[in-house]
Amino acid sequence: MTRIWPSVLLLLLSIATSHAADNLKAFPPADDGMLRYVLQLPKQADESALKVELLIGRTVELDERNRYFFGGKIEAETIQGWGYTLYRVRALGPMAGTRMAVDPNAPKVMRFITLAGEPYLIRYNSRLPLVVYVPAGVEVRYRVWSAGADIKAMEKG
Questions:
Q1: C-beta of residue 93 within 8 angstroms of C-beta of residue 69
Q2: Which CATH class name applies to 27-146?
Q3: Which pTM was predicted?
Q4: How far apart are CA 68 and CA 95, in angstroms?
């Protein structure tokens, strides 16, 4: 019996790996100068109560006080013939920020600076990989948001 477990585990791992590879067939490889990030989200009991926030940016050495952001935008594209969605950032624009006075002797810190604008939220879907294409040198991070169970009624006005 103990000899069979390694074989069973290997079989399950190969099935999971081939399933993930099958899901990626629809997604083209990254073009020159671009990177492809892939995230397979874990299955959840109620995925309708979840959203994924994409955070695209770069880690930069800056002061701690000012707020910074990059220009650019995330574009959602549907893959013809498959109906799957991929996300693309074609270029990371220039970095801008506030200009509060900072002590010139204050140490610089490494900070992850993201694209400007509202949070980019997408539907949580564990059945398909989340695929994002970005220029080389750009990072992709994510955050999972969940809705609370408490639903409240609004008053009529």
A1: no
A2: mainly beta
A3: 0.81
A4: 7
